[in-house]
Amino acid sequence: MSGPNLHRLQIFQIVYEMQNISAASRKLGLAQPTLSRHLAVLEKELGFELFLNVGGRIEPTWEAQRLYEETAGLFERVAQVEKSVEAIRIGAQSSLRVITSSALALEVVPAAIGEIYQKMPELDLVLEGGGQRAQIEALRCNAADIAVGGVLENPTGLRQTVLGKFPVVAVMKADHPLAIHDCFDLASLEHHASIMQNPKAPIGAFIFAELARRGITPKRYISAYTLPFSVSLARHMDLCTVTDFFSAKALKDDTIVIKPLSDPLYLELVTLEPASAGRKRGVAEFKAALKRALQRQLRG
48: which strand partners? Predict the structure, then answer.
Protein backbone atom coordinates (compact mmCIF):
# COMPACT_ATOMS: atom_id res chain seq x y z
CA MET A 1 0.00 0.00 0.00
CA SER A 2 1.29 3.47 -0.86
CA GLY A 3 1.56 5.98 1.98
CA PRO A 4 -1.27 8.38 2.79
CA ASN A 5 -1.32 11.80 1.12
CA LEU A 6 0.06 14.50 3.46
CA HIS A 7 -2.52 17.05 2.33
CA ARG A 8 -5.37 14.66 3.18
CA LEU A 9 -3.78 13.88 6.54
CA GLN A 10 -3.73 17.61 7.27
CA ILE A 11 -7.44 17.80 6.36
CA PHE A 12 -8.11 14.86 8.69
CA GLN A 13 -6.31 16.60 11.56
CA ILE A 14 -8.38 19.77 11.18
CA VAL A 15 -11.65 17.84 10.97
CA TYR A 16 -10.65 15.75 14.01
CA GLU A 17 -9.84 18.85 16.06
CA MET A 18 -13.01 20.74 15.10
CA GLN A 19 -15.29 17.69 14.77
CA ASN A 20 -17.42 19.73 12.44
CA ILE A 21 -17.29 19.47 8.65
CA SER A 22 -18.63 22.99 8.03
CA ALA A 23 -16.17 24.65 10.42
CA ALA A 24 -13.26 22.63 9.03
CA SER A 25 -14.27 23.56 5.48
CA ARG A 26 -14.24 27.26 6.34
CA LYS A 27 -10.84 27.02 8.07
CA LEU A 28 -9.30 25.15 5.16
CA GLY A 29 -11.02 27.24 2.47
CA LEU A 30 -12.52 24.14 0.86
CA ALA A 31 -16.07 23.41 -0.22
CA GLN A 32 -17.75 20.81 1.98
CA PRO A 33 -18.17 18.26 -0.87
CA THR A 34 -14.48 18.62 -1.69
CA LEU A 35 -13.46 18.11 1.94
CA SER A 36 -15.74 15.06 2.27
CA ARG A 37 -14.30 13.62 -0.91
CA HIS A 38 -10.76 14.00 0.45
CA LEU A 39 -11.75 12.18 3.64
CA ALA A 40 -13.36 9.37 1.66
CA VAL A 41 -10.21 8.95 -0.45
CA LEU A 42 -8.05 8.97 2.70
CA GLU A 43 -10.19 6.28 4.31
CA LYS A 44 -9.78 4.18 1.18
CA GLU A 45 -6.00 4.73 1.25
CA LEU A 46 -5.83 3.75 4.93
CA GLY A 47 -8.26 0.84 4.79
CA PHE A 48 -10.40 1.91 7.78
CA GLU A 49 -13.07 4.44 8.73
CA LEU A 50 -12.18 7.69 10.40
CA PHE A 51 -15.50 9.28 11.28
CA LEU A 52 -19.00 8.04 11.95
CA ASN A 53 -22.20 10.05 11.46
CA VAL A 54 -24.02 9.82 14.76
CA GLY A 55 -27.27 11.79 15.03
CA GLY A 56 -26.13 14.35 12.44
CA ARG A 57 -22.76 14.81 14.13
CA ILE A 58 -19.44 13.28 13.22
CA GLU A 59 -17.57 11.24 15.77
CA PRO A 60 -14.01 9.97 15.31
CA THR A 61 -13.45 6.25 15.43
CA TRP A 62 -10.91 4.61 17.73
CA GLU A 63 -8.64 4.25 14.69
CA ALA A 64 -9.02 7.97 13.99
CA GLN A 65 -8.01 8.80 17.55
CA ARG A 66 -4.91 6.61 17.27
CA LEU A 67 -4.02 8.11 13.87
CA TYR A 68 -4.37 11.62 15.27
CA GLU A 69 -2.02 10.78 18.14
CA GLU A 70 0.51 9.22 15.76
CA THR A 71 0.49 12.24 13.45
CA ALA A 72 0.70 14.84 16.24
CA GLY A 73 3.49 17.26 15.39
CA LEU A 74 3.87 15.80 11.88
CA PHE A 75 3.16 19.05 10.07
CA GLU A 76 5.31 21.07 12.41
CA ARG A 77 8.15 18.73 11.47
CA VAL A 78 7.28 19.03 7.79
CA ALA A 79 7.29 22.84 8.11
CA GLN A 80 10.71 22.66 9.76
CA VAL A 81 12.01 20.48 6.93
CA GLU A 82 10.64 22.98 4.40
CA LYS A 83 12.48 25.78 6.22
CA SER A 84 15.66 23.71 6.20
CA VAL A 85 15.29 23.02 2.49
CA GLU A 86 14.86 26.74 1.80
CA ALA A 87 17.93 27.53 3.93
CA ILE A 88 19.97 25.02 1.92
CA ARG A 89 18.64 26.46 -1.34
CA ILE A 90 19.72 30.02 -0.52
CA GLY A 91 23.07 28.90 0.93
CA ALA A 92 22.49 29.57 4.63
CA GLN A 93 25.25 28.19 6.87
CA SER A 94 27.29 27.29 3.78
CA SER A 95 30.32 28.91 2.20
CA LEU A 96 32.08 29.23 -1.12
CA ARG A 97 35.79 30.06 -1.04
CA VAL A 98 37.23 31.03 -4.42
CA ILE A 99 40.80 31.84 -5.41
CA THR A 100 41.27 33.17 -8.94
CA SER A 101 43.98 34.35 -11.28
CA SER A 102 44.25 38.09 -11.84
CA ALA A 103 43.18 37.77 -15.49
CA LEU A 104 39.82 36.31 -14.53
CA ALA A 105 39.33 38.44 -11.41
CA LEU A 106 38.55 41.51 -13.50
CA GLU A 107 35.42 40.41 -15.38
CA VAL A 108 34.51 36.73 -15.56
CA VAL A 109 34.68 35.68 -11.91
CA PRO A 110 32.85 38.79 -10.59
CA ALA A 111 30.08 38.21 -13.15
CA ALA A 112 29.71 34.61 -11.99
CA ILE A 113 29.77 35.62 -8.33
CA GLY A 114 27.06 38.21 -9.01
CA GLU A 115 24.85 35.50 -10.48
CA ILE A 116 25.48 33.18 -7.50
CA TYR A 117 24.69 35.97 -5.05
CA GLN A 118 21.28 36.45 -6.65
CA LYS A 119 20.54 32.72 -6.51
CA MET A 120 22.05 31.94 -3.09
CA PRO A 121 21.97 35.24 -1.15
CA GLU A 122 22.83 33.65 2.21
CA LEU A 123 25.95 31.91 0.90
CA ASP A 124 29.09 33.06 2.73
CA LEU A 125 31.41 34.17 -0.10
CA VAL A 126 35.17 34.44 0.36
CA LEU A 127 37.20 35.62 -2.65
CA GLU A 128 40.90 36.15 -3.18
CA GLY A 129 43.40 36.42 -5.99
CA GLY A 130 46.44 34.26 -6.46
CA GLY A 131 48.69 32.63 -9.02
CA GLN A 132 48.82 28.93 -9.73
CA ARG A 133 51.19 28.11 -6.88
CA ALA A 134 49.03 29.97 -4.36
CA GLN A 135 45.94 28.26 -5.76
CA ILE A 136 47.39 24.77 -5.35
CA GLU A 137 48.52 25.53 -1.81
CA ALA A 138 45.10 26.96 -0.86
CA LEU A 139 43.28 23.91 -2.23
CA ARG A 140 45.59 21.38 -0.60
CA CYS A 141 45.43 23.01 2.84
CA ASN A 142 41.63 23.39 2.61
CA ALA A 143 41.76 27.18 2.50
CA ALA A 144 39.72 27.29 -0.74
CA ASP A 145 36.93 25.22 -2.30
CA ILE A 146 37.73 26.04 -5.91
CA ALA A 147 40.42 27.77 -7.94
CA VAL A 148 39.96 29.49 -11.30
CA GLY A 149 42.79 29.92 -13.76
CA GLY A 150 44.79 28.15 -16.45
CA VAL A 151 45.52 24.52 -17.19
CA LEU A 152 47.68 22.73 -14.64
CA GLU A 153 50.00 19.97 -15.83
CA ASN A 154 49.82 16.84 -13.65
CA PRO A 155 47.14 18.05 -11.21
CA THR A 156 47.83 15.31 -8.65
CA GLY A 157 45.12 15.18 -6.01
CA LEU A 158 43.10 17.85 -7.77
CA ARG A 159 40.04 17.64 -10.01
CA GLN A 160 40.50 19.82 -13.11
CA THR A 161 37.56 20.93 -15.27
CA VAL A 162 37.91 22.84 -18.55
CA LEU A 163 35.00 25.29 -18.85
CA GLY A 164 35.94 26.99 -22.13
CA LYS A 165 38.61 28.99 -23.87
CA PHE A 166 39.37 32.64 -24.56
CA PRO A 167 41.72 34.38 -26.99
CA VAL A 168 45.15 35.87 -26.62
CA VAL A 169 45.23 39.44 -27.99
CA ALA A 170 47.67 42.30 -28.55
CA VAL A 171 47.28 45.69 -26.85
CA MET A 172 48.94 48.95 -27.82
CA LYS A 173 48.42 52.69 -27.87
CA ALA A 174 45.99 53.91 -30.53
CA ASP A 175 48.81 55.77 -32.28
CA HIS A 176 51.29 52.85 -32.19
CA PRO A 177 52.67 52.04 -35.70
CA LEU A 178 51.12 48.56 -35.56
CA ALA A 179 47.67 49.90 -34.62
CA ILE A 180 46.85 50.48 -38.29
CA HIS A 181 46.63 46.73 -38.91
CA ASP A 182 43.45 44.74 -38.36
CA CYS A 183 45.39 41.85 -36.79
CA PHE A 184 48.63 41.48 -34.89
CA ASP A 185 51.35 39.21 -36.20
CA LEU A 186 53.47 37.75 -33.38
CA ALA A 187 56.50 38.06 -35.65
CA SER A 188 56.17 41.84 -35.15
CA LEU A 189 57.68 41.34 -31.70
CA GLU A 190 61.06 40.79 -33.40
CA HIS A 191 60.99 44.36 -34.66
CA HIS A 192 59.08 46.30 -31.96
CA ALA A 193 59.91 46.62 -28.28
CA SER A 194 57.22 45.09 -26.09
CA ILE A 195 55.99 44.25 -22.63
CA MET A 196 56.07 40.51 -21.94
CA GLN A 197 54.29 38.47 -19.30
CA ASN A 198 55.92 36.53 -16.48
CA PRO A 199 57.38 33.44 -18.21
CA LYS A 200 56.80 31.36 -15.08
CA ALA A 201 53.07 32.16 -14.90
CA PRO A 202 50.59 30.12 -17.00
CA ILE A 203 49.78 32.83 -19.56
CA GLY A 204 53.37 34.04 -19.88
CA ALA A 205 54.69 30.47 -20.18
CA PHE A 206 52.11 29.72 -22.86
CA ILE A 207 53.04 32.84 -24.90
CA PHE A 208 56.79 32.24 -24.63
CA ALA A 209 56.30 28.59 -25.62
CA GLU A 210 54.36 29.66 -28.71
CA LEU A 211 57.03 32.19 -29.66
CA ALA A 212 59.73 29.55 -29.28
CA ARG A 213 57.73 27.08 -31.35
CA ARG A 214 57.49 29.66 -34.14
CA GLY A 215 61.15 30.65 -33.90
CA ILE A 216 60.29 34.21 -32.79
CA THR A 217 62.73 36.02 -30.53
CA PRO A 218 61.22 39.23 -29.12
CA LYS A 219 63.19 42.44 -29.45
CA ARG A 220 64.09 44.16 -26.19
CA TYR A 221 61.17 43.91 -23.79
CA ILE A 222 60.03 44.90 -20.32
CA SER A 223 58.82 42.13 -18.02
CA ALA A 224 55.45 42.68 -16.31
CA TYR A 225 54.65 40.20 -13.57
CA THR A 226 50.96 41.04 -13.35
CA LEU A 227 48.57 41.08 -16.30
CA PRO A 228 46.87 44.42 -15.52
CA PHE A 229 50.31 46.01 -15.19
CA SER A 230 51.20 44.98 -18.76
CA VAL A 231 48.08 46.67 -20.16
CA SER A 232 48.68 49.82 -18.12
CA LEU A 233 52.28 49.97 -19.31
CA ALA A 234 51.11 49.68 -22.91
CA ARG A 235 48.81 52.62 -22.28
CA HIS A 236 51.63 54.86 -21.06
CA MET A 237 54.50 53.68 -23.25
CA ASP A 238 55.00 53.31 -26.97
CA LEU A 239 55.15 49.55 -26.57
CA CYS A 240 52.81 46.67 -27.40
CA THR A 241 51.93 43.72 -25.21
CA VAL A 242 50.42 40.31 -25.79
CA THR A 243 47.95 39.31 -23.10
CA ASP A 244 44.64 37.64 -22.45
CA PHE A 245 41.38 39.00 -23.80
CA PHE A 246 39.76 39.64 -20.41
CA SER A 247 42.59 41.73 -18.95
CA ALA A 248 42.68 43.79 -22.14
CA LYS A 249 38.91 44.27 -22.24
CA ALA A 250 38.61 45.23 -18.57
CA LEU A 251 41.35 47.86 -18.77
CA LYS A 252 40.65 49.26 -22.23
CA ASP A 253 39.99 52.96 -22.76
CA ASP A 254 40.10 55.34 -25.72
CA THR A 255 43.90 55.58 -25.63
CA ILE A 256 44.58 51.92 -26.46
CA VAL A 257 43.40 49.38 -29.02
CA ILE A 258 42.95 45.62 -28.82
CA LYS A 259 43.98 43.56 -31.84
CA PRO A 260 43.27 39.87 -32.48
CA LEU A 261 46.23 37.75 -33.48
CA SER A 262 46.60 36.96 -37.17
CA ASP A 263 47.19 33.34 -36.19
CA PRO A 264 44.77 32.93 -33.24
CA LEU A 265 45.86 31.49 -29.90
CA TYR A 266 43.48 30.45 -27.14
CA LEU A 267 43.86 29.95 -23.42
CA GLU A 268 41.70 27.45 -21.53
CA LEU A 269 39.70 28.50 -18.49
CA VAL A 270 39.78 25.74 -15.92
CA THR A 271 38.65 25.16 -12.37
CA LEU A 272 40.53 23.14 -9.78
CA GLU A 273 39.02 21.39 -6.77
CA PRO A 274 40.43 18.92 -4.26
CA ALA A 275 39.78 15.46 -5.75
CA SER A 276 38.71 14.12 -2.37
CA ALA A 277 36.22 16.90 -1.66
CA GLY A 278 32.49 16.22 -1.70
CA ARG A 279 30.44 17.84 -4.42
CA LYS A 280 29.09 21.05 -2.84
CA ARG A 281 26.09 22.68 -4.45
CA GLY A 282 27.68 26.13 -4.17
CA VAL A 283 30.74 24.95 -6.12
CA ALA A 284 28.59 23.30 -8.81
CA GLU A 285 26.42 26.44 -9.17
CA PHE A 286 29.52 28.63 -9.35
CA LYS A 287 31.07 26.51 -12.13
CA ALA A 288 27.86 26.67 -14.15
CA ALA A 289 27.65 30.45 -13.62
CA LEU A 290 31.33 30.81 -14.55
CA LYS A 291 30.75 29.02 -17.84
CA ARG A 292 27.79 31.28 -18.65
CA ALA A 293 29.78 34.39 -17.69
CA LEU A 294 32.63 33.32 -19.98
CA GLN A 295 30.25 32.93 -22.92
CA ARG A 296 28.57 36.30 -22.24
CA GLN A 297 31.87 38.15 -21.95
CA LEU A 298 33.15 36.68 -25.20
CA ARG A 299 29.95 37.60 -27.03
CA GLY A 300 30.03 41.12 -25.59
Answer: none
